[in-house]
Amino acid sequence: MKWKHAIMACTALVAVAGVYALGRWSALPTPETASRAAQTRSAGDGAGGADAAPATPAKGGVLPPVSASLGATFSDLQARANAGDLDAARRLVRDLDRCSRLRANEWRNAGTTQALLDRKTDGMSAAQLRTYQVLLDAMDVRQQTAGRNREMCAGADDKMLATLVANIAQAARLGDADARACYLGRGPLYDVRGLIEHPGVLQGYRRDATAMIDAGLAAGDWRVVDLLQRAYEPGAEGLLAGMLGPDPAQHYRYLKLYRLGAEPHRVAQLDRQIAAIAASLSPEQRYDADRWAQGTFEDKFSGSSTTSTPPGWEACSF
């Protein structure tokens, strides 16, 4: 029984470590340039990193191999992203995000790994030994992945990693849907500590978020619709909610659009939410919102709204 409890405890520890590994950790840009080459400062936010994007995304040629270290590729990718190269901006965000999470993931996994290795197998039943082997195999896979990540993140210093949020904003400006969802959903709050040193980034968020909302709706991005319907809900929290302010009519409008694309198993719940909101609106407000939602759905959107936005979905998932 003791070994059974030990195996169950190890399993729980590994599961917790896996959940923690999904977390995101980053930092806002510092005043100094992060690149070894001089980088132009972003206008308006007082922080180094990505510049405001050109009006039209540019193509900048072949990207470095995926196995290339971020320390070696950062300067080139940053310059290309600043010049409007969407592919370079997208690649830079994903590499920075991966490396920003590396240290935290390794720290959190270290204790769980050691606890698993310290287990004694004497007296384990055949079933317990099989479970233990599964845990060891999973640990080995994680260690191999961590090793590849360490190689890819070689040479990436804190100044480089500190440009993550600014580069998410740049990729979003250039049209990357994943970066747009992340920046709208989290923005500078991706690193709350940075707000103390760079409060001006909040003004940059207000400026960029409006354009990103328009771009997301024009592109038929269901994640933007879900972010908006939640942000407009009275009592909502978060940066986007703080910028937009509570508005039952707008909440109804975007929730109605979201419901038009919902999977059948989500419809009943959404209809109940819509009915509750509708009770506080005038007939004219409901009519205008219904007409707008139907027209926007037919003109701009396709596919399922709820497939890409399941309950608890993560806005910053690269």
Secondary structure elements and their pairing?
Blueprint: H1 2-21, H2 70-82, H3 86-117, H4 126-152, H5 158-161, H6 164-173, H7 177-185, H8 193-197, H9 201-218, H10 222-231, H11 239-244, H12 248-260, H13 264-278, H14 283-300
Helix pairs in contact: 1-3, 1-4, 2-3, 3-4, 3-6, 6-7, 7-9, 10-12, 12-13, 12-14
Structure overview:
The chain is mainly alpha-helical. It folds into two domains: 2-161, no CATH class; 176-300, no CATH class. Helices cover 63% and strands 0% of the residues. The chain contains 14 helices and no strands. The protein is globular.
Q: Any descriptors?
A:
318 residues, mainly alpha, 14 helices, 2 domains, disordered N terminus
**Total beta strands:** 0
Q: Could you report the average pLDDT, rounded to the nearest whole number?
A: 83
What is the gyration radius calculated from CA atoms? Answer: 23 Å
| Beta content | under 5%
**Sheet bearing the most strands, described?**
none
Brief summary:
The chain is mainly α. It is 63% helix and 0% strand.
